[in-house]
Amino acid sequence: MSLYVNLQNEAEAASGNSVPVAGDTVLQFQESTFSSGQATGKMTGNNRPGTSDANFTTPLAGGANSGPEGGHPAARGSMFSINYYRPYFDVDTVDVLGRIKDSFIPISGDFVEKNAANPDLYGPFWICTTLIFVTAALGNFATFLSFKPTAAEPKWHYDINKVSYGSAIFYGYIGVIPLLLFFVMKYYRAAIGLVQLWCLYGYSLAVFIPITFLCVIPIELARWGVVAAACLLSTLFLALNIRGHILHTTENWYLVVLAVVALHLALGLVLKLYFFTYFSFSL
Amino acid sequence: MYGSMMTSNKALLDSRDDIDEIDQLFSASVQPAIPIQQLPPSRPKSPPKVPQVPPVPAGLFSTPAPPVPVSTNPNGASSSSSVPPAAPSASGFGSAPVHSTLTEPVWHTLRRDILRVASNVWTVVFPCFSGAQPGKALRDWDLWGPLFFIIFLALTLSSSASHNKSVVFAVVFAVLSSGAVVLTLNVILLGGKIIFFQSLSVLGYCLFPLDAGALVCLGWSNKLFRSVVVLVSLAWSSWSAYPFLSSAVPPARKALAVYPVFLLYVAVGFLVLAND
């Protein structure tokens, strides 16, 4: 059922049709502001899973809401204009906080479905940036706490390279891996869009931020335990969501999920080993 | 003598072009007794004299160059003096001088810019004293102030670092400058209505408290004292940036716009604190 239909007209025109109108209230929808020439693609709701238009995001099967794009992508301007990216930042504070909360508790693999109509890039980018800053700062703080002056190094100094390497690692991971996964998913004709994958991966990193605060504790076992717990949560979140999309489209879905899990665990390992390992002899 | 030359220059602006004007300045300074009107009116406008013109002002105005770069401007928005004399009323941003700024002494140009930077700092960072409405956009914005503050902060942090001085400078400069751009884009993408360069300007001026904090921390190495100084300067920076940004976005997204600013200032504050 298209949303841009004046229900009252329909009720008047079609005599005896069973258009459900609740009680005496007449549901009246706004007239569509788009010309008929633009009602292509997503607006018709005829999208079969696996087909995607020139735009990055595809609505999932049965999704009638055309999403924030609201029309032909060309109406939004070229790829090099700010307007093109505005729909991907169409979130309020409560939305972002709700999504972060969802990523902390990965019991059901429906994060992508819940946010399919409005995937945002604000969360991934700023969670990534926060993570870079937090790991660099707290990694240096951890070395400060465990510093013992030796002959070679009488004073503690901070390592600025943590910032640059950290940004390469995290931005690279969040930027490239969803792209590769997108190509793999398209190969297997799974219905998921690139921006939705970026959104998913970005929010999956949110769990790592609190645990970097806990990683300052100078007990190695505690650090490993905390990082392992966070990795588990984050990977579970990712795996459940990816599995939900690829499960029915191919035989080899477990290979894809396994690759995703392995890469994510590798990221957690790098995070622990590079940022929170200190080379001292005691404890 | 110089004052009389300036007033007669204004009178001649209509009839002569700038090259003639400079020639007369030069010749009048060499032969002070000849009044300007007695010079032959139909001087040939000789193109070969054009290449000589640039060295002449440089020889006349031989003040030592201050650290602020006058000739290059990476941000593309310069004060009126470094724009070639395409129009007599050179277009500054905000207030435009009504006379040609080509013939004024370099000190006047610099003083105008310094005063503008000072007044902008006063407006942005001390809104309670200056009586400016917090949240009102900076009217007379410029980019010299932000450039100076970013470079100063990067230099301070780099000079007090013991390892990787050049990397520290590069990282701080890149983080601050690209951070300002990214923060502005963030506000624009969230649906805020701001002017790009004006926002860059405000975010740059809000670095002033951190600059002051970094300068103070250069002198003392007591960690507790530095923590207090860094906390105070970072709170001050965020407090001065907050009204501008929060008034630009719809209220449901205020935290989304303000949080990244806070993140940037905390990151820089951490660097100031961690310096030894």
From TrEMBL, chain A:
One of its GO terms (cellular component) is Golgi membrane. Residues 36-58 have a biased composition (Polar residues). The keyword Transmembrane helix applies. Keywords: Membrane, Transmembrane, Transmembrane helix. The chain crosses the membrane at residues 124-145, 165-185, 197-219, 225-242, 254-275. Residues 36-72 are annotated as: Disordered. Residues 109-270 form the Yip1 domain. PANTHER family: PROTEIN YIPF (PTHR12822). This is Protein YIP. It comes from Klebsormidium nitens.
TrEMBL record, chain B:
Keywords: Membrane, Transmembrane, Transmembrane helix. It comes from the Eukaryota. Residues 139-270 form the Yip1 domain. Residues 41-57 have a biased composition (Pro residues). GO terms for cellular component: Golgi membrane; trans-Golgi network. It is a multi-pass membrane protein. InterPro entries: Yip1/4-like, Yip1_dom. GO terms for biological process: endoplasmic reticulum to Golgi vesicle-mediated transport. It is found in: Golgi apparatus membrane; Membrane. Residues 70-96 have a biased composition (Low complexity). Pfam families: Yip1. This is Protein YIP. The lineage of its organism: Eukaryota, Viridiplantae, Streptophyta, Klebsormidiophyceae, Klebsormidiales.
